[in-house]
Amino acid sequence: MEHILVGMAEFYSKNLAREIKKGLTERIRQGFLVFRPPFGYRREVVEKQQGHKRIRTISRPVLDDAAGGVFQRIFELCDHGVGYKEITKILNNDGLRTAQGRRFASNHIY
Of the candidates 16, 45, 62, 88, which lies 20 to 30 Å from 30 by C-alpha distance? Predict the structure, then answer.
């Protein structure tokens, strides 16, 4: 009996993972956000659905005009042949921060 219950639990877990992955893939295909938008984009709420347990928010990425100057600066520095690490040093020394208020890292620029 225990082996049957273990098998059923394993099937449930794998099936749930497949269904969640399928739902996330479909949401991405429709152009909606699944996670936090990258730097330079902000979240625009399309729909909020309130259930009895949680609030489900459907949103899509929209260009953030406030980050436009930072983007322009990054691309200008890249055009002049400045590397990723040097760009992060320049941005951090100028006091610029990410959308979460943290210092830039080279993977942000990459």
Answer: 16
Domain membership of residue 84 (yes or no) is: yes
C-alpha to C-alpha distance for 31 and 9, rounded to whole angstroms: 33
Q: Has residue 87 been placed in a domain?
A: yes
Look at the chain and report how many structural domains it folds into: 2
Within a domain: 49 = no
Domain that holds residue 97: 66-109
Q: Is residue 37 part of a domain?
A: no
- Mean pLDDT per block of 10 residues along the chain (110 residues) reads 92 95 92 85 83 81 82 88 91 86 84
> Does the predicted model carry a pTM greater than 0.90?
no
